[in-house]
Amino acid sequence: MRELYVSFGAFIGRYNGRNPDKMFEIAESITCDGFEFMMYNDWYPEIDGIIRRVTDKSLPIKTFHADKLIGEFASLGDFSEARARMKKNCEYAHALGADKIILHLWNGKPSDNDFENNIKVFPYLYECADSLGMELLPENVVCAIGSPIDRLLELSDIYPYAKFTFDTKMSAFHDELDAVYSKERRRIWDGKISHIHLNDYAGGYKNWSTLKTLHIGRGDIDFDEFFCFIKSVNYSGTYTLECSSLTETGELLLSEMRDSVAAARKYIENAKGDKI
Asked: Is 275 among the domain residues?
């Protein structure tokens, strides 16, 4: 497919009061193949109205990033709340027309400290999405004690049907891009990765002070090498740009995102695919 989307979450946050109106401004200003909808915890009371407005405006929502607290409840072993939120999020995603749901299967302070909880609840969360014809794609998010890519491989070994989202920044934050390219772990690319979050990172291993989602070319990730690799493994899925595009004064950095869209398209189209 090789479609390139932009995340509304890159522009909506605490500095603009998570104002859903910003979605329409962004959609008018950014040219891409569609958008990733970010579900915020404080949007539940108004989500029906937001969905109506998005569908009335025919915004092309291709992927849906589920409420991150689902993963936190899963990590804590509160399966009832995790399941209830997942069911709602799947219904919202379906109403918006998304066909992929991005999930933080573990999250927050609990993170992967009790990963057996996350493994245990996954089949139900998967079924919520699958029953509505959507892919559920856990992401290689930050781990407290483990490796994000190894957590996904562990999940895949238990549930062979599982597919995933790969995030470049998250992998760089854990200093494991080289590990992802290795023969031992590259099996994650054997039909398992269905979506990629593109963003840059500047900082060392688990350097929390630099954990910011940067625009393409603003960090240390070698995107020539990355795209060469995914070309070599015949990746043909979709992409979302998540690069942070909101200042502390609430300004939308639209031109920076347009530059990242152009850079990402160039990488996608020109990757050589000769990495071994």
From this structure: no
70 located within any domain? yes
240-265: per-residue pLDDT in tens? 999 999 999 999 999 999 999 999 99
Q: What is the sign of the dihedral through the CA atoms of 7, 10, 11 and 13?
A: positive
Residue 48 maps to a domain: yes
Under DSSP, is residue 65 helix (H, G, I), strand (E, B) or coil? strand
Name the domain count of the chain.
Answer: 1
In a domain, 107, yes or no: yes
Ordered strands of the 238-241 beta sheet? 135-138, 100-103, 61-65, 35-38, 4-7, 238-241, 193-198, 164-167
- For 150, the 3-state DSSP assignment is helix
Q: Cα torsion at 52, 56, 60, 62 (round to 10°)?
A: 20
CATH assignment at residue 76 = 3.20.20.150
pTM metric for this prediction: 0.96
For the stretch 117-155, pLDDT in tens is 999 999 999 999 999 999 999 999 999 999 999 999 999
Reading the block at residue 216, the tokens are 């393409």
Distance CA 131, CA 189 (A): 25
